[in-house]
Amino acid sequence: MSRVLVVGAGLAGLACALRLADQGAPVTLIATGAGSLQLGGATIDVLGYNPALVSRPLDAIGALPPEHPYALLGRDRVTASARWLAERLPALDLRGSGQENLLLASALGAVRPTAVAPAAIAAGDLRAGGSVVFASVHALRDFFPALVAANVAAATAVSVQTRSAEATVDVRGDGDASSLALARALEQPDQRARVAAALRSAIGTADGARVGLPAALGIDRHAEVVAALSDALGAEVFEVPTAPPSVAGIRLYRALLAELRSRRARIIIGSTAVAAARDGARVTALEVKVSGRTRTFPAEAVVLATGGIATGGIELHHDRLREPVLGLPLADDPGEERYEEGAFHEQPVDRAGVRVDAHMRPLDADGAVIHPNVRAAGALLRGAVPWRELSGNGLALASGLAAADAVLAERAA
Amino acid sequence: MSVDIRGSLDNCVKCTVCETFCPVAAATPLFPGPKYAGPQSERYRRDGTSVDASLDYCSGCGICTQVCPQGVDIAEINARARAEMKTARGMPLRDRLIARPPLLGRLTHPVAPIANAVTRSRPGRRALQAALGIHRDAALPAYSRTTFQSWARKHRPPAGTTRTVVYFHGCAANYNEPSVGRMAVEVLEHNGFEVIVPPQGCCGLPLQSNGAFEPAREYVRALVGRLAPYAREGHMIVANSTSCGLMLKREAREILGMDDDDLALVGSRTFDICELLRDLLDEGELRTDMRALPMRVPYHQPCQGRGHGFGKPALDLLDLIPELEVIETDRECCGVAGTYGLKVEKYPIAMQVGAPLFADIAAARADCTACDSETCRWHIAKATGLPSVHPLELLHRAYGLS
């Protein structure tokens, strides 16, 4: 029996697979690993810069060049996709609709715009002004509350009074702790009470200020941890992203996977799709490297959500780029002149990717559909510069759902 | 070496995804996590020099390798480094014993009632803990008086079979749970298979996970010698223990580094029993005339089951049984990881690793639990007080075979 194969476990692949499974399609999700959601801050960035700071991202979509994936997807679909995620995963308590960007402190205290964020992160919206204390525990070595406070205070986009505090307290009896270890400790009431007491004495009186803490406020018991710390500190607390691992990203990944599981989607993490079988233009199966062998997975339809260069969806070869699963042509490949001076400049390679039509079907250089039953989504698409325009998760979500809807429409036909 | 395991560490981008999944690091600070113990420490290991004894606390569940988005063979790198460390430091008698199930089986099954009485008694367990370092509360299996092989030799296949399969039953079905072996045969026969049961030994996994690589390779070579003639004739080989099957499919090559044509052939022809049955289901060839089993059963896939890359075939099969409410637990590992949780210094960690799973099972108010690997079943049953069965057993009942 052939199934709908979704390749990739980032936001595009997971959202796509969940929408398909919700509608009763037989879905198999195949991914090399656990995807990139756990590295990011769990915010849905729709559009943050173009190239100036964007305050109304959905409105700003209309001004993008026609080859940008958002131009294909359109404002309505992007709006609907953000709403879908919030409604589909109510436990995440997502805030924001994309009408206006929130302005949040990054892990280094840069002010970053985003459209949708979990409540505990959205509570750090700096547009609200006022006073903020950025606080952490010393054991968390990659988080610097003084740096965050200084950079936020110096930012011109917002007007916030800041200070910082750092508590010295053992987490799990270790000298050092990652954000994950801190999150696990905070789920234990006794350890949480110790950390809270140390934070309270380091902060002193919050005096009406919000308290920004590293985004490590629990995993499964996140709401309970947030409430308990707010109570203990006598202040509204919010989460500031950390260096990986991203606990907020883990919460998002787990929530999506749990929903997929409850739909009995087949989930194969740790196996890589390497090739395809074809019958004419249609892809009839994917060849997947599983344990010790290559297995054939019969395909009714395929959605490639394998990501861009960073996650292997696009391979860099010395003179060209390559899409490794189907060998799809990559538009805007700059050849060997991939980079230019300036780490923060857009690079010639940035917009390279798979060109698709409005049904997310890959197109060849002449604009013809290559495989009628294949779709592409997420960072694999050409035309966007997510790291610069802050559009990664917004594109992943909208294009993943668009691919799912295209597959569903074809199944219904 | 056909597989470049160590070279894969260059792909590590330090993203920490493995750390977020590691069930042992979540349970104890004694293990610093797969990234630290693996790709990071590996750079300092030269010529067998061991840099960090915490590696011994890795349970070998393999989750790190499965979730790595960059394809780093973290678990395999760590298994090899652990073996070097244990070789350099010497292996305790306990590890040499518990890593040889066929030896234990041959010694014990003729005197099964006496052995079982000892392992069931408090004084017996205290003595085992004092003498060998096997934790007195760890789940030890009972031994059967008769082996599965002796049943299989007398068993006459039914008429009307349409295809053949070779059954690799493993040590547990032979010495501890011959009923599981019998049910495997009967479920396969019910679906039209003639089941061939060649004489066979251990897959070497316990020796491998205890770091005794050369003796493990000897076990693998002997087993492959038994199975390869069938594989060459085109037979499929079916295993009901997910961990033993994984050893043949992958781990003997990727961890023990065995580059052997017969092993590659046998590995490529080996299927887990639920994998095989689900393939039949997908092809419309599985018998689905099943009777109702009105029960609530949490299903835990063993960590080693995830290593196969086939999803959760047992769930797809159990979902076919009318009125059976199957609750998928989603925990990385039950904690025991083969022989890890038997050891006096590791048993508390194994219980901590399994605690979230045990809590899920308690909350489910279940009639029994289901799990594919035997050591996991014994550990889960002991920890929860509920019987734990192979998914096969539920299929066997639903088919009206028991």
Describe the structure.
Chain A has helices spanning 11-22, 57-60, 69-88, 119-122, 145-154, 179-187, 189-203, 222-233, 247-262, 386-389, 392-412; strands at residues 3-7, 27-31, 94-95, 102-105, 111-114, 117-118, 131-137, 161-167, 210-214, 237-240, 266-269, 272-279, 282-290, 293-304, 315-316, 321-322, 374-376. Chain A has 413 residues and is of the alpha/beta class. In chain A, helix 5 links the parallel strand 7 and strand 8 (161-167). Chain A is globular and about 70 Å long. By secondary structure, chain B is an alpha/beta fold. Chain B is 51% helix and 8% strand. Chain B has helices at 17-21, 23-27, 34-42, 63-67, 74-89, 93-98, 101-108, 112-120, 122-132, 148-154, 170-176, 178-190, 205-209, 213-232, 242-254, 261-269, 273-282, 303-306, 313-318, 347-364, 374-384, 391-398; strands at residues 163-168, 193-196, 237-239, 270-272, 295-300, 324-328, 369-371, 388-389. Chain B has a four-stranded parallel β-sheet. In chain B, helix 21 (374-384) links the parallel strand 7 (369-371) and strand 8 (388-389). In chain B, 54% of the residues are buried. Classes of the chains: A alpha/beta (413), B alpha/beta (402). Chain A binds chain B through residues 1, 28, 31-36, 38-39, 172-174, 178, 180, 184, 244-245, 250, 257-258, 261-262, 264, 266-272, 288-293, 295, 311-312, and chain B through 14-17, 19-21, 26, 29, 65-71, 246, 249-250, 253-254, 267-268, 282-284, 306-312, 315-316, 319, 328, 330.
